[in-house]
Amino acid sequence: MPADMPQTQVDDLALLGLMQLVSPALPIGAFAWSQGLESAFELGWVNNEQQLGDWLEGVLEDGLTRCELPLLARLQRAWAEQDQTALADWNAWLHATRETAELSDEDLRLGAALVRLLGSLELLPPADLMPEEPGYVTLFAWGATLRKVPVRQTLLGFAWAWLENQLAVACKAMPLGHTAAQRLTEQLRPKLVEAVDAALQMNDDELGPIIPGLALGSAQHETQYSRLFRS
């Protein structure tokens, strides 16, 4: 962005850039992954709208709030400061938290797809800053940094994209009606804000997801006979 661009235009372009990153139309294949939710349907853990709301709220509180969201804040700061060591360390830390092959594969494949997309747009970060096998969260943080999106809005956008994807999965696999999905959106929107508030207050030694049910379901999904999604 030109250095002399008015702040209003900078803010507007940042918002549009964030909308581009969280759009379902972003061609990285996120629609193909359910992040363990399809397993919850298959195993009978989630059977209706109320149970789905409880599941999503639990994953948000014990998963995203303790992992992806605070990590995004740290990665965005590391990109802004060009701190290659911090980028590599947090990227590796994220890989270590993925408890199943499918969840790890999802992060790596979406990250690789985002690298290809950014490369085609000539928006890749400097090669000397790029971690080895950068994951989706790491590249999302780069995209937000490049577009000068404030950290809080980055976290809100990421959480919103996660919720939209999970509800889209439910509409295909549960199935969940679109009106019910909108009711859950209304129910969970305040929870996204609370999750971001909590994530921004977390210290490094408090990080780490506590979602054993999702991990167990995801592990069983690897051998599930019939499935629509890759995780």
UniProtKB/TrEMBL annotation:
Keyword Ligase belongs to the record: no
Name of the coding gene: ureF
Species of the source: Marinobacter iranensis
Protein's name in the database: Urease accessory protein UreF
Subcellular location: Cytoplasm
Oligomeric and partner information: UreD, UreF and UreG form a complex that acts as a GTP-hydrolysis-dependent molecular chaperone, activating the urease apoprotein by helping to assemble the nickel containing metallocenter of UreC. The UreE protein probably delivers the nickel.
Record-linked InterPro entries: UreF (IPR002639), UreF_sf (IPR038277)
Described function: Required for maturation of urease via the functional incorporation of the urease nickel metallocenter.
Keywords: Chaperone, Cytoplasm, Nickel insertion
Annotated HAMAP family: UreF
Gene3D superfamilies: Urease accessory protein UreF
Family assignment from sequence similarity: Belongs to the UreF family.
